[in-house]
């Protein structure tokens, strides 16, 4: 007896659970519509039912049948107003012509559409009479099963089909809540990848190379880049009249000196890292290749990557240039120290970073490129500054195989770059292969695809700048920014990570995946936001 009872209880729980899922699915199907599913529907009515050969009789009887059907549907709507998610809108529609007399209403239109604004016949074609009705999703199901109804189909909004606009700007605005949508054709996939959800060639016919970003694009946000030198004399930085781009100051052995020039500050002896700073700056904020093309760039020259130069540089900025909730620091260097052997320098470094972060800055650093876990229990080492609590640690993926030519041939989508460190310390992965523009030693402009975690990190810094510029009312710190990135990022899509830690792939908030040729093999957000048809839903429900 008791057993039967509990089985019954179990069954009820399962049933309730299933119906919850079902209800949610129905809702989800309609979320594209601003009114949450209430919509105008086209109702097809079979008008041959009374065809007994005599045309007059047929026409008359059909009119009676149609009128009675319109009445029934009108009453159905009125009696079920509670099934609408926006009753106010329903009543507005219902009373649209209320201020007019019947005669005026008739004069307004070239045909008689009857008394109801909620359901009315619009035309007849062959054996079908077409009605328009404003229905809630629940009522659609009821109407479909009324007598003589052939079908009831949503009056869908069509996309304007201009040649390039396979994407829908309003749809993007609705998803991201950006005030304006910036769209740039990206010449390499490092930008397009971060402004679309998980791309799968099973769902998309042609990879979308566009970069979509908030129109504010990092405006009034300061990105501080520490490097051995910079050359901002490149078209990527040609808009110096509308934002700050400059060599800020030079720190050598802890002493700060002003930079002699704003545009080009290269150390003549520094051959190896000659282009490094410029490429990092371009990745974060270059006009063509950067993720935040309107952000300010402060190039901080450190002739040696030494602890003391970085710490004094940070404190100098804190005291002189820092603006709360407007600052991003990107560290592409790092090292490791022995676990449990944190010395005073590491402690100071950590404290300075924590303090500036709490004042309203976001720190981003590159995970090492040694292909090992960032906390290495075997070697007893830990990467810093990546492992600091107040630093967002960035790893890289092998996106070089994601370009248009290679799509489809490589099953290794979104795989961790061979060189990238990994592990629980790595907070987010980003494209590791990046196209940059820079000036070579002969002042000739070059464009190349380069790689390394020191480029994934400024790419993320740029994305963060666009988030900060778009939502100036949110007072971000490193920790709250990381929470935010976790909310909007793509989870657990990185492959070939040698451990079980959950992974996050950077995303700027736009997840709809479009196909450049407008062809889709699936439905939902990863397939151009195509409507999923009922069959797919009923399969899920069973
Ligand atoms: C309409 O009804 C007639 C008579 O029942 C039937 O023969 C015809 O197939 C129906 N048409 C449609 C489109 O359902
Ligand atoms: C920075 O200052 C040091 C010491 O004065 C100098 O040797 C170095 O060349 C400077 N770097 C740049 C890029 O100006
Ligand atoms: C930003 O990234 C570059 C690239 O490696 C790195 O050299 C630089 O130190 C980073 N910026 C900061 C503030 O650490
Ligand atoms: C795609 O990758 C292949 C092989 O690396 C390369 O030859 C081709 O130029 C790339 N295409 C683009 C558009 O980057
Ligand atoms: C990887 O790290 C090594 C030093 O550990 C450095 O020499 C090299 O330039 C780095 N490569 C990239 C692509 O960052």
From TrEMBL:
UniProt entry keywords in alphabetical sequence:
Hydrolase, Protease, Serine protease, Signal
Which region is the signal sequence? 1-23
All copies of the Peptidase S8/S53 domain together span 220-478
- Record-linked InterPro entries: Peptidase_S8/S53_dom, Peptidase_S8/S53_dom_sf, Peptidase_S8_subtilisin-like, Peptidase_S8_subtilisin-rel
Give the domain of life.
Eukaryota
User: Is Signal set as a keyword in this record?
Assistant: yes
Q: In its UniProt record, which GO terms are filed under biological process?
A: proteolysis
Instruction: Quote the Gene3D superfamilies the UniProt record gives.
Output: Peptidase S8/S53 domain (3.40.50.200)
The family database entries (Pfam families) matched by this protein are listed as:
Peptidase_S8
One of the record's GO cellular component terms? extracellular space
Q: Name one GO molecular function term.
A: serine-type endopeptidase activity
Query: In the UniProt entry, which residues are flagged as the active site?
Result: 227 (charge relay system), 276 (charge relay system), 454 (charge relay system)
Q: Which family does it belong to?
A: Belongs to the peptidase S8 family.
**Name of the protein in question:** Subtilisin-like protein
């Amino acid at each position: 007896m008791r057993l039967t009872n509990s089985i019954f209880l179990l069954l009820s729980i399962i049933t309730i659970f299933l119906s919850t899922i079902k209800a949610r699915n129905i809702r989800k199907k309609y979320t594209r519509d601003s009114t949450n599913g209430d919509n105008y529907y086209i109702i097809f009515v079979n008008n041959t039912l009374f065809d007994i050969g005599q045309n007059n009789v047929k026409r008359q009887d059909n009119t009676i049948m149609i009128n009675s059907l319109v009445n029934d549907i009108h009453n159905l709507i009125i009696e079920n107003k509670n099934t609408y998610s926006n009753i106010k809108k329903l009543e507005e529609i219902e009373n649209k012509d209320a201020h007019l007399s019947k005669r005026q209403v008739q004069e307004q239109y070239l045909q008689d559409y009857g008394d109801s604004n909620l359901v009315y016949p619009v035309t007849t074609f062959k054996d079908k009479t077409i009605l328009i009705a404003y229905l809630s999703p629940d009522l659609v199901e009821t109407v479909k099963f009324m007598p003589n109804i052939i079908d009831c189909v949503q009056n869908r909004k069509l996309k304007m089909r201009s040649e390039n606009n396979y994407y829908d700007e309003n749809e993007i605005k609705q998803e991201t809540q950006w005030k304006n949508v910036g769209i740039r054709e990206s010449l390499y996939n490092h930008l397009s990848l971060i402004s679309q959800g998980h791309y799968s060639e099973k769902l998309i016919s042609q990879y979308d190379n566009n970069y979509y970003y908030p129109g504010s694009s990092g405006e009034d946000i300061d990105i501080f880049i520490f490097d051995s030198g910079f050359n901002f004399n490149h078209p990527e930085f040609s808009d110096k009249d509308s934002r700050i781009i400059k060599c800020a100051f030079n720190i050598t052995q802890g002493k700060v000196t002003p930079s002699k020039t704003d545009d080009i500050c290269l150390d003549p002896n520094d051959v190896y890292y000659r282009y490094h700073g410029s490429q990092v700056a371009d990745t974060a904020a270059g006009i063509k290749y950067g993720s935040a093309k309107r952000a300010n760039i402060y190039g901080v020259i450190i002739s040696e990557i030494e602890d003391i130069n970085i710490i004094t540089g940070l404190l100098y900025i804190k005291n002189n240039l820092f603006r709360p909730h407007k600052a991003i620091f990107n560290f592409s260097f790092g090292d490791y120290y022995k676990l449990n052997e944190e010395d005073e320098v590491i402690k100071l470094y950590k404290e300075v970073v924590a303090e500036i972060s709490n004042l309203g800055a976001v720190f981003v650093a590159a995970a090492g490129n040694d292909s090992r876990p960032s906390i290495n229990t075997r070697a007893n080492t830990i990467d810093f500054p990546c492992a600091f609590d107040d630093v967002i640690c960035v790893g890289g993926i092998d996106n070089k195989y994601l370009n248009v030519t290679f799509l489809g041939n490589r099953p290794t989508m979104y795989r961790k770059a061979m060189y990238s460190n990994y592990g629980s310390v790595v907070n987010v992965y980003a494209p590791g292969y990046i196209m940059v523009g820079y000036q070579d030693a002969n002042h000739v402009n070059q464009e190349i695809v380069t790689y390394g975690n020191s480029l994934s990190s400024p790419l993320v810094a740029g994305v963060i700048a666009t988030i900060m510029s778009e939502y100036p009312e949110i007072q971000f710190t490193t920790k709250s920014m990381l929470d935010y990135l976790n909310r909007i990022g793509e989870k657990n899509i990185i492959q070939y990570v040698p451990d079980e830690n959950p992974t996050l792939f950077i995303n700027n908030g736009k997840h709809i995946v479009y196909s450049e040729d407008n062809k889709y093999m699936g439905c939902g957000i990863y397939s151009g936001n195509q409507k999923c048809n009922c069959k797919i839903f009923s399969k899920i429900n069973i």
